[in-house]
Design goal:
The complex is a heterodimer of chains A (236) and B (247). Chain A has 236 residues and is α/β, with parallel strands linked by helices. Chain A is built from eight helices and nine strands. Chain A has two domains: 107 residues, Rossmann fold (3-Layer(aba) Sandwich); 109 residues, 3-Layer(aba) Sandwich (Rossmann fold). The longest helix of chain A has 16 residues. Classes of the chains: A alpha/beta (236), B mainly alpha (247). Bound molecules: adenosine-5'-diphosphate (ADP) and magnesium ion (MG).
């Protein structure tokens, strides 16, 4: 595996009550790599991402970023349901991390936020509230909100599965551009064309463990496990 | 036509000093009490979901105490029984107005805490998650995200509470606070022109509530988050009004 792994999960366990959601997940992401995670609903994909983003404390095992515990805003997270702050404009959403967490002065935060909104193609929507944006636009604002914190890695939890089909493309395009710029990414998604095209490798999760990992060519043409084969047949 | 209505007496009452003072007193007592009640209620609402069992227990006890007993009894207790239990309250500084203010604030806080709690809970948990993912502290998330969003939900039932409280100030007449109803009663007992003097009091209450309703709708618009400030169709408030129970 890559020696310069920057994001790493080490035997991560997590349970809710009696339910063992993660049963020892180990994997690592090298700088600039894009890992796509697939797997059936309930297999623990979202829980794993929440552990990586430190939104959830693992019961056992460790999460590390460049060998240490990730700091505030160092791992960006994008949610399935966008979760934009409803009481703020698009610009306000992108600014708030800078003013509250990074303690930047308003003027500087506004400049940077505007720049990042432009990067996701939404400069002209700066003054709109989330309710006034399409799902695709909201998700792009959410990406800008995470990116403006200059994270070392970005996590995406099914970023397009709440979107109408015609809006999926604009979000995937932004993500692909980000990958091309060298961002380290972990993406839970069943957009297999995107995975094929952009992923460094693909991971299959089932019942709280990673059952296989391989580069896209190999993963799609010759999956190791019967479970993976059956799942791919279902998704396609 | 009505048999007799002396418009002169009516106008006299409407513009008389005691009415003005009574109305101002009622309004002042209401504004002061609800302001304090909102602050205490907010803390109580936070305490309801505290990690500490003792804190949760205290909130439960507080709300139980103030909701299970008549407001009038609480008022009498604070005015008459407190000085007996603690001599500090026997001093002349402890005026009837102050006693009424304390009683109504504490009482109203129990109701406000339920309203505020429901408002805070109505905010999508995804909002907090997003805040934490950015690295915001719980305090920052509360102040910048959750509280502003819950205000829209909290405003309508708080308006109801304000009206209830305005009417409850008339209870303070029993501990000789000269609010509006006391003024009307005094005039009535002198002139025996009930329609005129009570009619004038009605006008005052109606005027005060109307102004409040106007302020409320402006405030609601202010906390509806669209660029035009008013276009969004607003969902029916999730918080039931609790104002018409007999306190
Ligand atoms: N906060 C939670 N409390 C209790 N159970 C949870 C919680 N989060 C997830 N789960 C449960 O953990 C399992 C895995 O969930 P999740 O990680 O969301 O899976 P996936 O994203 O792969 O669909 C599910 O059975 C889900 O019900
Ligand atoms: Mg999920």
């Amino acid at each position: 595996m890559s020696r310069d792994a920057i994001l790493r999960a080490d035997a991560v366990h997590k349970h809710y009550g009696d339910l063992e959601v993660l049963r020892g997940v180990t994997f690592e992401v090298g700088r600039g790599e894009v890992k796509v995670i697939i797997g059936p609903s309930g297999s623990g994909k979202s829980t794993l991402l929440r552990c990586l983003a430190l939104l959830e404390e693992p019961d056992a095992g460790q999460v590390s970023l460049e060998g240490r515990r990730p700091g505030r805003g160092e791992v960006g997270m994008v949610f399935q349901r966008f979760n934009l702050f409803q009481n703020m404009t698009a610009l306000g959403n992108v600014m708030i991390g800078l003013t509250e967490v990074r303690r930047l002065p308003k003027r500087e935060a506004r400049e940077q936020a505007t720049e990042f909104l432009a990067r996701v193609g939404l400069k002209d929507k700066a003054g709109q509230y989330p309710d006034e944006l399409s799902g695709g636009q909201q998700q792009r604002v959410a990406i800008a909100r995470a990116l403006v914190m200059r994270p070392q890695a970005m996590l995406f939890d099914e970023p397009t599965s709440a979107l109408d089909v015609e809006l999926v493309r604009e979000v995937l395009d932004v993500m692909e551009q980000l990958a091309n710029e060298g961002m380290t990414m972990v993406v839970v998604s069943h957009e297999l064309r995107f995975a094929h095209h952009v992923a460094s490798s693909i991971l299959m999760m089932d019942e709280g463990v990673v059952i296989e990992e391989a580069p896209p060519e190999q993963f799609f043409s010759a999956p190791e496990h019967e479970r993976t084969r059956r799942f791919l047949a279902l998704v396609e | 036509m009505v048999a007799s209505f002396d418009t002169h007496v009516f106008w006299e009452a409407l513009s008389s000093g005691p009415y003005w003072k009574g109305a101002l007193l009622a309004l002042g007592l209401t504004v002061a009490s609800i302001s304090v009640a909102i602050v205490i209620g907010f803390l109580l609402a936070l305490g309801r979901s505290s990690r500490l069992r003792a804190v949760r227990g205290f909130v439960f006890f507080y709300n139980w105490l103030f909701r299970a007993t008549p407001t009038l009894l609480q008022l009498l207790f604070i005015w008459d029984a407190l000085p007996q239990l603690w001599p500090v309250f026997a001093g002349s500084w402890f005026t009837p107005f102050l006693a009424a203010f304390v009683a109504l604030s504490l009482n109203e806080a129990a109701y406000m805490s339920e309203i505020i709690r429901a408002g805070l809970l109505s905010v999508d948990p995804g909002q907090e998650l997003a805040g934490r993912a950015l690295g915001m502290s719980r305090r920052q998330i509360l102040r910048r995200v959750i509280v502003p969003q819950s205000i829209r939900i909290i405003i309508p039932p708080t308006g109801n509470e304000f009206i209830t409280l305005l009417k409850l100030t008339s209870l303070a007449s029993v501990i000789s606070v000269h609010e509006l109803l006391t003024a009307a009663n005094e005039q009535a007992s002198v002139a025996f022109k009930f329609a005129e003097v009570y009619g004038a009091a009605l006008v005052y209450y109606l005027a005060m509530v109307s102004v409040l309703m106007l302020l409320q709708s402006r405030l609601e618009r202010r906390f509806t988050f669209t660029s035009a400030g008013r276009r969004r169709r607003v969902a029916a408030p999730a918080v039931p009004a609790v104002s018409h129970d007999a306190r």
